[in-house]
């Protein structure tokens, strides 16, 4: 006959096994949050990242998901602001997601990362380039190059390819991305023997008349190069600069890559250059295959490709981890080496950055962007 203590131990063991079984069953639902701007000023440029993640999850689920379980995609709106991005990250924690893909803009990712780091939830940003993001903690990763790399490559392109000796830098004082990239470019340009004549500030919501005042100051400097570290508003500025007869080269970062850059005046730009993460013109089997498949459903661009890569890398890490334990997923992401993505090879360094990816230089001619070159540091 079983004693009281033995019966109690058996009861405790049964309860433990019951709850353990429930926990394991719960963990069999793979929950991935996609955190981007679904509303507000960033929503137009973030649309392609949303579609890239969505397409990747649909593709994975068509193939049976992971561990034979379908992936549940939870799309969360960050409202195009840093404050709402923090709240979006907190919502992802409440949803008990296994990982987060997002955000796009560096300002948004900088607000999300501390929340997810504290919660021990892996986060992969497709295209937040600010170097500080992955320094926040060991659960934070990205699949794009950083502003350090693109700033240095753009300075190299300016001095070697454009033979620019002088530059005026124009930066959005309300954008962490713009300020950081402008600073990195200025330092790299100076190290290469270039001379920065002036640094001009603006706010992206300024009216055209206010931009004109900045442009007049640019013209007075007569620089070889005008470097604008903004986003879509850069197109308005360049269009007006051309109308004023400025003859300088125009150069920008990956912020020029969004479709609304073209909608706001990009199609009127006669000449310019900007950095990109990827181009569908690159003759690479994986890139071409992605373009052929993706464009049947959505508009294909670098933002969609980066978001697709981030999602497929996460899936690869989960499979390598052999578990839905967030710590094991983090460890697998950190150990990533030689992952062949659409946008290039990814091998994570000690900071959670994808090594030294190439920078694509796009050339604008008569309102159309085309591949100019692919550059390494």
UniProtKB/TrEMBL annotation:
A Pfam family this chain is assigned to: Peripla_BP_6
Keyword entries, A-Z: Signal
Signal peptide range in chain numbering: 1-25
All residue ranges annotated as the Leucine-binding protein domain in the record: 29-367
Entry keyword Metal-binding: no
UniProt keyword Heme present: no
Domain of life per record: Bacteria
Protein family: Belongs to the leucine-binding protein family.
Stated name of the protein: ABC transporter substrate-binding protein
Organism listed in the record: Desulfobotulus mexicanus
Source organism phylogeny: Bacteria, Pseudomonadati, Thermodesulfobacteriota, Desulfobacteria, Desulfobacterales
């Amino acid at each position: 006959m079983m004693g009281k203590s033995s019966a109690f131990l058996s009861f405790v063991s049964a309860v433990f096994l019951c709850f353990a079984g429930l926990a394991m069953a719960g963990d069999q639902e793979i929950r991935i949050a996609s955190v981007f701007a679904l509303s507000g000023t960033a929503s137009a440029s973030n649309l392609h990242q949303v579609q890239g993640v969505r397409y990747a999850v649909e593709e994975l689920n068509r193939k049976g998901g992971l561990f034979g379980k379908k992936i549940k995609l939870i799309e969360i709106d960050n409202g195009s602001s840093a404050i709402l991005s923090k709240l979006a990250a907190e919502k992802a924690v409440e949803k008990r997601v296994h990982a987060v893909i997002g955000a796009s803009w560096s300002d948004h990712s900088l607000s999300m990362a501390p929340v997810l780091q504290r919660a021990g939830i892996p986060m992969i940003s497709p295209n937040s380039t600010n170097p500080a993001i992955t320094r926040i903690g060991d659960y934070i990763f990205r699949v794009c190059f950083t502003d350090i790399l693109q700033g240095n490559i753009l300075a190299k392109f300016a001095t070697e390819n454009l033979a620019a000796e002088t530059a005026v830098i124009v930066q959005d004082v309300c954008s962490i991305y713009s300020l950081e990239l402008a600073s990195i470019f200025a330092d790299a340009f100076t190290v290469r023997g270039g001379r920065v004549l002036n640094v001009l500030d603006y706010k992206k919501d300024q009216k055209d008349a206010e931009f004109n005042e900045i442009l007049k100051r640019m013209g007075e400097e007569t620089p070889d190069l005008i470097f604008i570290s903004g986003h879509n508003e850069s197109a308005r500025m360049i269009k007006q600069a051309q109308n004023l007869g400025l003859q300088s080269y125009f150069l920008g970062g990956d912020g020029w890559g969004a479709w609304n850059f073209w909608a706001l005046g990009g199609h009127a730009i006669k000449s310019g250059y900007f950095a990109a993460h990827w181009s569908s013109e690159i003759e690479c089997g994986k890139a071409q295959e992605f373009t052929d498949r993706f464009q049947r459903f959505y508009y294909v661009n670098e933002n969609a490709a980066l978001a697709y890569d981030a999602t497929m890398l996460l899936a690869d890490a989960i499979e390598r981890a052999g578990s839905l334990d967030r710590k094991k997923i983090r460890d697998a992401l950190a150990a990533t080496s030689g992952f062949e993505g659409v946008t290039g090879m990814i091998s994570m360094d000690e900071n959670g950055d994808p090594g030294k990816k190439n920078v694509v230089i796009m050339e604008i001619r008569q309102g159309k962007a085309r591949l100019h070159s692919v550059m390494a540091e």
